[in-house]
């Protein structure tokens, strides 16, 4: 459903010029995908433990953004049916890459994480 809506939005807003990519993690290097799988919280973790695990993943992605999300990367586009640049015209450095990895500052229910 989400993919369908995004493709319709590409048609309506940009006459099919906007790309629609699949899962972001599919574009990551295999070693990083494996690390994220290992570092991800389990469904049995408490909210605080899960939040800490997700924060570690975010920190790792931010530290390694220059090679995890290279400006020259491409990915299959569901609108154009071929590989398209994921960051056309962009040149990111580690300090600038964090803007697309920011997580909302949510407060956990009942008590703060320690």
Topology:
Elements: H1 2-14, H2 30-39, H3 47-63, H4 65-68, E1 74-77, E2 82-85, H5 94-97
Antiparallel strand pairs: 1-2
Kindly summarize this structure in a few lines.
With about 110 residues, the protein is mostly helical. It has helices spanning about 1-15, 30-40, 45-65, 65-70, 95, and strands at about 75, 80-85. Helices cover about 40% and strands about 5% of the residues.
What keyword list fits this structure?
114 residues, mainly alpha, two-stranded antiparallel sheet, 2 strands, globular
Describe this entry's structure for a reader.
It is a single chain. This protein is mainly alpha-helical and 114 residues long. Helices cover 42% and strands 7% of the residues. It contains 5 helices and 2 strands. A two-stranded antiparallel sheet has the order 1-2. A hairpin with a 4-residue loop joins β1 and β2.
Distance between the termini: 38 Å
Q: Which geometry do the CA atoms define?
A: globular
What is Rg? Answer: 17 Å
Helix amount? 40-55%
Low-confidence stretches: 91-114
Total number of helical segments?
5
What is the N-to-C succession of helices and strands? HHHHEEH
**Describe the biggest sheet?**
2 strands, antiparallel
Strand residues, percent: 5-15%
Average per-residue pLDDT, rounded, comes to 78
Class computed from helices, strands and strand pairing: mainly alpha
The largest beta-sheet arranges its strands as 1-2
Total strand count, please? 2
């Amino acid at each position: 459903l989400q993919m369908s809506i995004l493709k319709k939005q590409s048609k309506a807003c940009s006459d099919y010029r906007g790309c629609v990519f699949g899962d972001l993690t599919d574009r990551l290097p295999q070693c990083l995908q494996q690390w994220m799988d290992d570092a991800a919280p389990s469904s049995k973790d408490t909210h605080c433990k899960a939040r800490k695990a997700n924060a570690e993943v975010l920190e790792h992605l931010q530290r390694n953004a220059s090679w995890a999300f290279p400006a020259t990367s491409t990915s299959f586009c569901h609108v154009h049916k071929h590989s398209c640049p994921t960051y056309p015209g962009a040149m990111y450095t580690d300090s600038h890459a964090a803007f697309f990895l920011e997580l909302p500052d949510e407060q956990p229910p009942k008590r703060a994480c320690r």
